[in-house]
Amino acid sequence: MNKFKLDISKAINEKVLVGYQNKVSKIHQDIIKGQGQGSDFLGWLNWPNDYDKAEVNKMVEVANKLLNKGVTIMVVIGIGGSYLGARAGNEMINGIFDRAENGMEILYAGNSISPTYLNQLEKYLKGKSWAINVVSKSGTTTEPAIAFTVLKAALETSFKDANERIVVTTDASKGTLIEVAHQEKYPAFVIPDNIGGRFSVLTPVGMFPLICSGADYKAIFSGAQDALTKNLANDDLTTNEAYRYATTRFHLFKNNDKYSNEFLVTYEPQMAMFGEWWKQLFAESEGKEHTGLLTSSATFSTDLHSLGQFIQEGSRCFFETVITVATPEKDIIIPKTEGDINKINYLTKFSMQEINQKAFNGVIDAHVSGGVKNIHIEIGKMDSYHFGYLVYFFELACAMSAYLLEVNPFNQPGVEVYKTNMFKLLGKKGY
Ligand code: PA5
Predict the structure, then answer these.
(1) Which residue positions in the chain have pLDDT lower than 70?
(2) Distances in Å between the alpha carbon of 70 and those of 50, 57, 67, 296?
(3) Annotated catalytic, 419?
(4) Ligand 1 center to residue 337 CA distance, Å?
(5) Fewer CB within 10 Å: C terminus or N terminus of the chain?
(6) CA–CA separation, 338 and 345 (whole Å)
């Protein structure tokens, strides 16, 4: 069942919220007319409707060709915005252990500089049929460049048809990767110029790995289209959920110095990587000019056994945004044990989903009574549709949120500082 429900009643008073209407309306006009800071990077705004259908067909064709060849593992090489979306989607949709019947296992590389990780990955790949999708908009990022060089050599050692097992996702004309793709005749997919890394999940950056994973790409776009239709058509703060969320978090941050952190909480381990994607989206978009909320994420009830004490009684410096899922893939009925040896027979009248729901209700009451403001999002299922919906919802909310803070949502000057320093230390030409 498709469902998306936002509840901000435990975080802000409705009258206070609508007090921001004029401000939000003005920013909304700037967004849709492309007049705000960084508006060269608004390609994602209408992307769920405008995406290149022929390119998506080509992605399906390339994935099928690899599957027909017997490829069972796709190693996605990328970092930051060129990695997190694919992994968030793959885990949310396919789960942590599972892979779709008609899909590949997706593994990741180039998201660190750890030789140990790369060695272990190579060991795991030995004897298996694998391929590479290297993803880099600039084509110059050090981490993926190293991993690509190492894994390409390993692929060439293992397979005669190595050249047919490499797929490139990069800029249409800039950077070294596109040159390599042309030279070696690798299939290449384009990251549009006007879409930055963290807003690129629905482009080939996320979509090719997700298609390889067997995710329902049509449903992903359909979820994103619904989020676009519902949230971009009008700016009314009584109905526009993306703007309601953005304004609430802005209000908590700006009007109450205490709330300098936002926790994205889920009750589903397979959404932990979604939290990682969300963290980057907001932190890299807002964390500049010495402002912005620090984004953190947690999985409950797991983290209640580590962070629970702090959340209940520690420094009141954060609020929570909790995502719950109405319907699990498959519920579990707890079996009664003879003699009640585990002392949990009283629970057998509930399914595990019902217990998870009770945990959520109990936790929310406890945290709210402990002074933690709470925003709640409920989605129907962890599937392709809801992944697409959430991605677009948060992207639009993020643009509004950064503009409320009066920063450019689409640049990342701070990330460049570290990259430049590293190039200098490593003696790269020109640095
Ligand atoms: O969001 C961003 O811009 C960054 O996280 C980049 O995606 C990341 O640095 C990787 O860059 P590239 O795709 O150019 O390799």
Answers:
(1) 257
(2) 33, 20, 5, 39
(3) yes
(4) 52
(5) N
(6) 9
